[in-house]
Design a protein that fits this description.
The chain is mainly alpha-helical. It is about 40% helix and about 5% strand. Helix 1 packs across helix 7 and helix 6 packs antiparallel against helix 7. The termini are far apart.
């Protein structure tokens, strides 16, 4: 059905004299305009000093829409004899679309708060329902509780969470809604200011190595056309300074990592024919090499079932490694042997353990120093828990479940070969020219 695009009709009433007949101007009449016209007609019938049989003749004569004027003039005698309610019923059949009441009913039931304020949304639904009550009672949301339940079920999720388990009036709900909307606007303003300040500082701040390393890799912006080509970032070649730095710190020229534990010929990237990511690549620097220096290494040893002949203890191991001793709090001196004899500990050290092949490394742990133990180092439950070690006594395995590395049965290290140093031969001497 074609939609009427004409301007809406207006209901003109006198604010000073309620006894004057209202006027309906020419234009499109929708349910809202018809509701206003019916209210104006009932108010005129209430205050005008006219007989009930004369009300319709005055009201019908005040309609200025040409087709309504023609409708009234075609059967004036019959229309004048109608009651006001019968006149409004006949007029609604003439000017309103078919099933308009059902459409407004569905509009109420499908409405959600969305980005509107709660009070504006509530008043809009109540006005639509009021139109149905006076003009199409069959389609109205007849119970107040039904409309209230609809408002509660379709309000904003944050507002519903804020007033959960609360018995509030509609005015109090509106106050909650305004408070939440103000908080959202304030939070969005703070986010915008922080992003603006961050982008400004990012352009002007002199950044250190750590902040640049933590930056996400820059991604090329995709183009929407096929005529322009975006150049992919390329991996720069190693300079002589980079090669010297890698050689000094046991690095790999393929993956470009310091203290990698392999060389370029045995690098895992060579097997997969891959290279470091050019987008996130950072030029090699001396500070990066110093940061990659391995910490104190304790070689992995296989502990035998009998240790009667062992004469070393952790105190001697601490001295050999040159670890810094620290005073142990008195409350932590709580170790005892199987014979319930106390083991006195006055000091502790910080130590990092690494497998013999350098493929596994623990975090920094605090170890208590004790004299007279039959083994150099005992790793207890705190260490196993912190490093996520799972022990399988039957299979004689101790696996770090984060990286699936077996500490008891480490895999053999890859063979490491070093390239021979290139020797530049001396220049060939020039031939002596014979005198002429």
């Amino acid at each position: 059905m074609e939609i009427d695009t004409r301007p809406l009709a207006e209901v003109k009433t006198s604010t000073m004299k309620v006894k004057e007949c209202p006027i309906l101007t020419a234009g499109h009449i929708n349910p809202v305009v018809f509701y206003s016209w019916s209210i104006a007609c009932r108010r005129f019938a209430k205050h005008a000093e006219k007989k009930p049989s004369e009300i319709v003749s005055f009201i019908a004569g005040a309609m200025l829409e040409p087709r309504l004027v023609a409708w009234y003039n075609s059967d004036t005698t019959c229309i004048d004899t109608l009651t006001l309610e019968a006149y409004l019923l006949e007029l609604s059949k003439l000017v309103l679309l078919k099933n308009w009441g059902k459409k407004i009913h569905n509009q109420i039931l499908s409405s959600t708060q969305g980005s509107k304020s709660f009070m504006d949304w509530k008043i809009k639904l109540e006005n639509l329902n009021a139109i149905l009550i006076s003009t199409s009672p069959a389609h109205t949301v007849d119970r107040l509780s039904a409309l209230k339940n609809h408002l509660e079920a379709n309000m904003d999720a944050d507002l519903k969470l804020a007033i959960e388990d609360e018995e509030l009036l509609s005015q109090e709900v509106a106050e909650w809604d305004e408070k939440l909307r103000s908080e959202r606007i304030c939070m969005q303003r703070l986010i915008d200011q922080a992003q603006s300040a961050r982008s400004s500082a990012h352009r002007t701040e002199k950044r250190d190595l750590l902040s640049r390393l933590l930056d996400p890799p820059a991604r090329p912006i995709p183009t929407t056309t096929t005529t322009h080509h975006v150049d992919k970032p390329f991996l720069p070649k190693l300079t002589e300074l980079d090669k010297k730095l890698l050689n000094q710190h046991e690095g790999c020229a393929r993956c470009r990592k310091f203290y990698a534990g392999h060389c370029s010929d045995t690098c895992p990237m060579k097997k997969t024919n891959s290279w470091p990511d050019a987008a996130s690549y950072v030029p090699l620097m001396e500070a990066m090499a110093r940061a990659a220096v391995p910490r104190i290494v304790v070689g992995a040893t296989q502990i035998s079932s009998s240790f009667e002949d062992e004469d070393t203890d952790f105190d001697l191991l601490v001295n050999e490694l040159g670890l810094c001793r620290r005073l142990l709090p008195a409350t932590e001196d709580n170790l005892s042997s199987l014979s319930q004899q106390p083991l006195q500990c006055l000091e502790y050290v910080k130590i990092t353990l690494m497998s013999g092949n350098g493929m596994w490394r623990s975090g920094s742990v605090r170890a208590k120093v004790n004299n007279g133990l039959p083994v150099p180092l005992i790793l207890g439950m705190p260490f196993l828990s912190a490093e996520h070690i799972v022990i399988d006594a039957n299979a004689r395995m101790a696996i770090d479940k984060r990286v699936e590395y077996d500490i008891v049965n480490p895999p053999p290290p890859p063979p490491r070969t070093w390239q021979l140093e290139k020797v530049t031969p001396p220049p060939t001497p020039k031939k002596a020219q014979s005198p002429l």
